[in-house]
Amino acid sequence: MASPPPLPSSTSVLSSASSLADSLFQRSLDDLIKSVRSDPSSEPSIIARSLSEIRREIRSSDPLTKSIALQKLTYLSSLHFHSMSFAAFHTLELLPSPSPQTKRLAYLAASLSFHPSTTELLPLATHQLHKDLTSLSTSSSSSSFPFLPSLPLHLLSLASSADLSSHLAPDLVPLLSRSSPLQPKAVAATYRVLSLCPSTVPVLFKPLVDCLSSDNPLTVSAAVGAFCELSAPPNDPAPYLPLAPEIYRVLVNSRSNWTLIKALKIFSRLVPLEPRLGTRIVEPLSKFLRESQAKSLVLECIKTVVSCLPTHTEAMRLAIDKIKELLSSDDDPNLRYLGLQTLGMLAPGHLWALEESREVVAQSLTDPDRSICHEALRVMMAMTLQENSIESCTLLVRQAAKSDPEFANEILDSVLTSCSKDFYELVVDFDWYVSLLGEMARIVHCTKGDEISRQLVDIGLRVRDARPELVRVARELLIDPSLLGNHFLYNVLSAAAWISGEYVEFSKDPMELVEALLQPRTSLLPTSARAVYIQSVLKVLTFSCNSHIDESSSLVNDTVIARMLSLIEMTVGPLAESEEAEVEDRVRNLLGVVRLVANIKDLSGDKDKDGMIYEVVRVMDALFSDEMGPVSANAQKKVSVPEDLDLKDNLADLSEFISDNDAAMSRSNPSILFYPQSCNASEEVEVGPTSVAESTSLKEHRKRHGLYYLSTDKETTEPELTEDYPRVNETLPLSNGDTTRRVKVTKLRPTVVKLDEGEDLATSSSLSTKVEAMKDDPLSGAIKDVLLGKKGNGASSSFDASSSSQGKGKDKVKGKEIKSKKGEEGESKDRHKGRRKHKHRKEPAPPVSVAQETPVIQDFLL
Question: What is the Rg, in whole angstroms, of the alpha carbon atoms belonging to the chain?
Fold first, then answer.
């Protein structure tokens, strides 16, 4: 008697009952859409509840329940941007479904759910994708489901991996070789596979090249687009140079504007590698410029001519005429923007064309479209030279005063950057530029105070002839009370105060400077700025007292000195108890000098009476009279470390090298700074043994590194000054040996101090280092091997076998798998012994293979 069948377990019963309940009470996609649209205010809660239901339903064993849940999830992902990554595995479960609707839904969901974090699941679908790709050769399947092969192609184009690409590459060859509606999609999938897996180049590259000569325009367009993307930066376009004849044939015969645009992009990358190509493409380009009505094609022709064919006069004239037509399109702002963009590409080789359109560019600065304004600003700065720098920069600053805050600061930033480039190369008249900097600072919306202050101080250090104008501009900035309330200009006011004190000898009224520096609203300034103000007052006071003693200035007398002392003591006195240490320190120094000067009963009287005080005043003036100069940015790097200096050594024995006076000073002030002694002081101070050693070492240091120090000797003659501060009009030696002047100016520029010529050429050298050859990526290397007739390495079949698949039958290609060289060597030696010898006998000689390694296209060029 047969035993009864086993009863189902309780778990399986519950699972089937749950699945049946989900299928009976499951909401469809229509129900989900209606619920979302019925109450827009509750949309987030409805979607959250729906996602919870989908997570439960998608685990169901019923394919219909799973497909409906996946359909709803696809809708939410497409319109509400919810992640589908959690459903990636369940999507793979529906790929083998016999239902066309379910299979299509599964492929759509797979293209949405797979991304770099879930591509590790893709190898699970390799067999199913291979089966669907090869279903084209089966007449029954293709007649039943004609769209079936397009689904895996779509998935490969959007979501793929290197492993999946290497396995499915042979399945794409029949689709690329047969003219069908699926061929363009196969080309798109091939581009994706080649990008992810360069080892598939021997299999797919030749069929992809054959698509360029297809009778189907869509296939040709897809193939040109694929090569355009493959040759785009950062890839190396050199391997695609042998394809120039095929691309040229497409350029001449195609009637599709988009295909022509892609072909022109390819040629724009190939012409710099092979300039002779420019002679061949200039005729079709000129034809398109003259006859085409498509603005997109005309624009691409203009870009190609400007970037690759600058020496072809006729083509350049046509391109410039077309640019002017784009600029004159008043009814279409997009065309005006594109016209400005292409106009900027003409610099610096065809500045005459930019000058012809200067008025149009200037009017574009006031355009309501912000993009047009930005592009016009870029073009305006590109056409700025020494000859027109005053006109251009003045126009831009005036426009900044009338523009909105954001664009106004962009204009100021462009002017500041361009004028300060290469040690103010564009600036001929520094008096004008200094006044322009002051005008920039007074613009209401100016936020470029840091850069303006840096350039004011830098010009004062480098350009001696500009110092009188600097003092005048600094005075105007200091006496303007409206600037004290703008926190963006605190650094500008600090720089103005420093200039007023450092170059006070160029001031026409020192008393006016003191009043401006001590006005009541200076309390609004931060601590750092107030400290500079007080220090500048000390410099002005010292200079005024010394000028009165020497009777070298008629502007300073007893009344002026008395007023100055009274004003300083009344204004600065309360700050002696300031909580800011730096302000308090400088205030006490200033008050000490004031009390010292106040003790002089009669500054014009007998000097022997108060000889000590007079001498102190002179010493104070000498303290601030040494001229400050710029320091090279590379000075510290160029000082070589002495061989006997160990930077890691313990400094415990430092006391042996320090004199008693230095030790006492260092104990009293830990942050003391040591300065070199002046020539006069060195004669009066008694020199001890330790001081002699230190002085000798200092002289040796200056002798070795004297290049990085500025001369502080006031008795220097004029010829020596000329050597320290070389004239700009004198030819300076450059690294490239070019000693010719670029621009001839009528007005001689003032002296601009340049301590380090290497620093001057840093910009050009950095730019030259950026212009490097494209990196030889694996894809480019594989394509070179194929075009040169070499065999590919790695897990890829030979190019000859894949390229001959059309003549020997596609069944043979479909049955092949990608083999490595190691696999070929591992085969039976007895079975392939004769073939292997025959293969070695037919191997080309080394000279022939060397000749084949040069991908030339001489016949095409001739």
Answer: 40
Torsion of CA 682, 688, 694, 700, to 10 degrees: 70
| Cα dihedral across residues 500, 503, 504, 509: positive or negative | negative
Six-digit token string for 283: 């005729």
Give me the amino acid identity at 215.
D
Sign of the torsion angle spanned by Cα atoms 303, 307, 308, 312: positive
pLDDT of residue 793: 44
**Separation of alpha carbons 675 and 629, rounded Å:** 16
Q: What is the DSSP string of 463-487?
A: -GGGHHHHHHHHHHHHT-GGGGG-G
Sign of the torsion formed by the C-alpha atoms of 157, 162, 165 and 169: positive
Of 329, 331, 350, the closest CA to residue 339 belongs to 329
**H or E segment at 385?**
none
Measure the CA angle with vertex 68, ends 64 and 72; round to 5°.
170
- Read off the tokens for 151: 């689904």
Q: Hey, what amino acid is at 575?
A: L
Number of neighbours of residue 839 by Cβ within 10 angstroms:
10
C-beta of residue 108 within 8 angstroms of C-beta of residue 75: no
Instruction: Give the C-alpha separation, 100 to 474, whole Å.
Output: 81
Give, as one character, the DSSP assignment of residue 556. -
CA–CA gap between residue 264 and residue 292 (Å, rounded): 14
499/32 Cα distance (integer angstroms): 74
Q: DSSP of 622-682, one letter per residue?
A: HHHHSPP----TTHHHHSPPPTT--TTS--GGGGGGS-HHHHHHHHH-TT----PPPHHHH
* Separation of alpha carbons 690 and 656, rounded Å: 9
Q: Identity (one letter) of the amino acid at 394? A: T
pLDDT at 580: 85
Q: What is the mean pLDDT of each run of 10 residues along the chain (862 residues)?
A: 49 47 72 88 88 88 88 87 81 85 86 68 80 65 58 82 86 89 91 91 93 94 95 91 94 94 96 92 94 94 93 92 92 93 89 90 93 95 91 94 94 95 92 95 93 94 93 94 89 95 91 91 89 92 83 77 88 84 89 79 51 74 78 80 76 63 52 39 42 52 53 42 41 41 54 63 38 58 76 40 38 39 43 42 41 48 46
CA dihedral (181, 185, 190, 193) positive or negative: negative
**194, 204 in Cβ contact below 8 A?**
yes
Q: Count, in order, helices (H) and strands (E) of the chain.
A: 49, 0
H helix runs in 39-125, sequence order: 43-57, 63-80, 88-94, 100-113
Q: Measure the CA–CA gap between 438 and 747, rounded to whole angstroms.
A: 23
Long-range contacts of 115-121 (CB under 8 A, 24+ apart): 115/85, 115/159, 117/85, 118/85, 118/88, 119/159, 119/160, 119/161, 120/161, 121/88, 121/89, 121/92
Give the residue from 560, 532, 547, 707 showing the smallest Cα distance to 625: 547
Q: Residue 405 CB: number of other CB atoms within 10 A? A: 13
CB 272 within 8 A of CB 298: no
The Cα 436–Cα 433 span in angstroms is 5
pTM for this structure?
Answer: 0.68
d(CA 301, CA 257): 11
**Strand (E) or helix (H) holding 100:** helix 100-113
CA distances from 593 to 196, 545, 596, 617, 633 (A): 77, 11, 5, 9, 36
What are the angstrom distances between the C-alpha of 839 and each of 823, 825, 832, 833?
17, 14, 10, 10
What is the Cα 14 distance to its own chain's centre?
62
User: What are 488's two structure tokens?
Assistant: 């963006």
Q: What is the pLDDT of residue 741?
A: 37
Residues in the chain: 862
Closest CA to 216 of 248, 259, 264: 259
